[in-house]
């Protein structure tokens, strides 16, 4: 695994005690970026997650803690709205900032008093979208998800030939919160109707944050693509299956996907995830080979990402009895058939311009086993079977009051274990139309 | 035709002589809004088209020409970026501004000197996108377009049941200019390849500009939808057919549509177009009826739009011989099966939030006659036939150097004739990948 540095050193400890606790998502080896505000200062501003604290990046910068490119990067982050300007600077700048942050926040910090003054408890913060999300594109890149939902159970030439994707809705991307059950047009018993959806589903995905963009007409090459990815988050691509089955021909899903998309608030950077890179997915010998413009040796060697992903369900009955959420999906981002670099390269291969802060979704991250099916439609055979929960409840689709909670964690021998925080959404009853 | 006022009076003449010339797109009855800059002041700012001049709205406002709500609307427009803030105020505010503009720019103007100081010749201006275009959605609402491209030639239940649409790419929406021929992945002779597209097409559409948006989870009702539309423009939804045929299953077109979308720079307002409203498209008796939430008596009575639309082709050979562009498509917006209000209502019916300045495309505005086919794929039978041009040239798809020029004009007995300006794009050769 190349390009590791002292920020990845598992032995490094933080001056913030909660960041040193086993099981924290945010040890000093993580240092993800996000936007937060507080009751006393409601202006969204950049922060870095550390244990159960947020480091107010602008405040630390104003104390004179940073120098050189790191200082410029911290100032760019504080420009707002969102972290767009930091993301536009590229991963070199983010890396300089990370290196100085890692030193400043370590037990050996030379500026501990400044750091302590810049801490805000997470419990007192409200999180905001980390970028302006000018564009949101969703892919379909798990072969397991694809084949389970195909009538013939086979990969198509299109699936093997390119990372399938569709433009999705940017305006309804949200952090954790409520999702109101939508009305949907669908066929019921041969009649067309418009009523509250009865087939609400989740899709467990990885979100990809675009760093420096490209000009219209100037594609991003596969060998450059990895460096154009600023970082990653969790993403729940809420899916309204009854709407989807009816509306999708010939132009694909539309209202099935724009109800809302829930993402986790922290951008876990490309650099933080380097220890957990792995080889690209190994295609079957009989599969089509990727076209040359989507093939790069480095990307094939380390374009995969070994991150465990979980989707858990908390029902009203579980909540009432004080039970914890039940994991429905345990999967791993390494199951994706296409790499993130291939997604970005394909997306821009027609000259389409990517903007800094654009969001891509990986597509449902299903794996080969039954336990790794990453949406209900795979578990219930498109609505034909019932899913049994361990508390005796059953589900086909999501019911009102159900909460879906996504988590993610990267672990590797000899390295710290880092997490993604959560993306949680709770289904609220449909409102009267 | 309801809700007309003195701004629609065909007898009203402007103090700007070129606005009184027959054939101008921009008589005083039009008054469309746009964003422009000049060499001496490169900051984009709001303007109003009048004959061959642009009225610098901010400059006129600063002279104290407006009062009350109109003054507030002019100030909102000047806030930038784009006209988003003006559009967010709603059509009532835009109407107040239009009423005062119409008086100020008329022959009877009481502030002619201030107006003259605020004029900028169009020939000296550079136009910019009229909004930030945070989201762009494209519909498919011509039954003639739909059936010509369907293998069975029939309307589907989905087409009759809802205005079919897909999220498209916001970042690549542009005004007139060059469009670089993209590379595309496609099947050629049974092999997958990545090469410059050989099937580049245009689609002649109407663009719809969203005024006041809605909160997530709060749908726009059909009876309110017309008032949420700020205005209209021309839109060329460039389509890469070889990419489209291969990539679209199961999630719809993606790179086929994100190469670029060319729009005209002026927003012809909902109010300016009132004299040219017409009844909604008359469905065949055997068609499905629209669901109740998409039906409104006023929308059925006047939700159609009687605007003549033309797509013309200027080839390098025509250009070399000094010929004018040849009209390939002559159609009319009244051929659309769904109304604009129905499109907006459907789009938000799942709670999806629309933002002020969002752009919708109507879909290819094809009509019943051969001359009203509004894309090459309809004229060439999906690439199986040749299109003969009157100068002896032939086309199947667009060739390098071809320019596609869209124009639009609304005309009705007893009313002024108003135009849309142009949306023109010229195909540039593919760059080396």
Textual characterization of the structure:
The structure is a homodimer of 433-residue chains. Chain A is α+β, with helices and mostly antiparallel strands. Helix content of chain A is 21%, strand content 27%. Chain A is built from 13 helices and 26 strands. In chain A, the strands form seven sheets. In chain A, strands 6, 7, 8, 13, 14, 16, 17 and 22 form an eight-stranded mixed β-sheet that branches. Chain A has a five-stranded antiparallel β-sheet with strand order 4-3-2-1-5. The first copy, chain A, has a five-stranded mixed β-sheet with strand order 9-26-25-20-21. In chain A, strand 10 and strand 11 (191-196) form a beta hairpin. The longest helix of chain A is centred in the first third of the chain and has 14 residues, at 91-104.
Any descriptors?
homodimer; 433 residues; alpha+beta; eight-stranded mixed beta sheet; five-stranded antiparallel beta sheet; 27% strand; globular
The assembly state of the depicted protein chains is: homodimer
Low-pLDDT residue intervals, each spanning 5 or more residues of chain A: none
Q: What is the helix content of chain A?
A: 10-25%
Strand content of chain A: 25-35%
Q: What is the typical, i.e. mean, pLDDT of chain A?
A: 97
Tally of strands of chain A: 26
Radius of gyration of chain A: 21 Å
Identify the most extensive interface between protein chains: A-B, 62 and 62 residues
**Discrete helix count of chain A:** 13
What coarse outline of chain A follows from CA principal-axis ratios? Answer: globular
- Biggest sheet statistics of chain A: 8 strands, mixed
Beginning-to-end CA distance, first to last residue of chain A: 54 Å
**Class by alpha and beta content of chain A:** alpha+beta
């Amino acid at each position: 695994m190349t390009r590791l540095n002292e920020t990845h050193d598992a032995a490094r400890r933080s001056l913030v005690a909660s960041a040193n606790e086993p099981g924290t998502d945010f040890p000093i080896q993580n240092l993800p970026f996000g936007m937060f505000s507080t009751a006393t200062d409601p202006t969204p501003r950049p922060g870095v997650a550390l244990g159960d604290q947020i480091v107010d990046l602008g405040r630390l910068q104003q104390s004179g803690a940073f120098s050189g490119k790191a200082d410029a990067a911290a100032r760019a982050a504080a420009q707002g709205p969102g972290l767009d300007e930091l993301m536009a600077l590229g991963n070199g700048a983010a890396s300089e900032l990370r290196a100085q942050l890692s030193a400043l926040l370590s037990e050996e910090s030379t500026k501990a008093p400044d750091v302590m003054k810049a801490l805000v408890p997470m419990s007192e913060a409200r999180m905001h979208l980390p970028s302006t999300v000018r564009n949101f594109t969703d892919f379909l890149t798990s072969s397991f998800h694809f084949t389970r939902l195909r009538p013939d159970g086979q990969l198509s030439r299109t699936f093997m030939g390119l990372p399938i994707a569709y433009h999705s809705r940017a305006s309804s991307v949200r952090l954790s919160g409520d999702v109101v059950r939508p009305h949907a047009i669908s066929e019921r018993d041969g009649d067309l109707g418009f009523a509250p959806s009865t087939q609400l589903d989740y899709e467990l995905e990885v979100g990809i944050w675009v760093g420096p963009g490209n000009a219209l007409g100037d594609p991003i090459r596969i060998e450059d693509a990895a460096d154009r990815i600023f970082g990653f988050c969790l993403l729940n691509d809420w899916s309204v299956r009854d709407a989807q089955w009816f509306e999708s021909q010939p132009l694909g899903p539309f209202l099935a996907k724009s109800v809302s998309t829930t993402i986790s608030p922290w951008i876990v950077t490309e650099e933080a995830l380097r220890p957990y890179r792995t080889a690209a997915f190994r295609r079957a010998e009989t599969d089509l080979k990727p076209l040359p413009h989507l093939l790069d040796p480095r990307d094939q060697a380390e374009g995969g990402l070994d991150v465990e992903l979980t989707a858990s369900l908390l029902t009203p009955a579980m909540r009432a009895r004080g039970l914890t959420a039940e994991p429905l999906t345990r999967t791993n981002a390494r199951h994706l058939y296409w790499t993130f670099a291939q997604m970005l390269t394909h997306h821009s291969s027609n000259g389409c311009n990517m903007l800094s802060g654009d969001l891509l979704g990986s597509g449902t991250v299903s794996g080969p086993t039954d336990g790794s099916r990453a949406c209900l439609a795979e578990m219930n055979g498109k609505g034909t079977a019932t899913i049994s929960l361990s508390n005796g409840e059953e589900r086909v689709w999501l019911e009102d009051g159900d909460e879906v909670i996504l988590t993610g964690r990267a672990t590797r021998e000899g390295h710290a274990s880092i997490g993604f925080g959560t993306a949680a959404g709770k289904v609220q009853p449909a409102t009267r139309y």
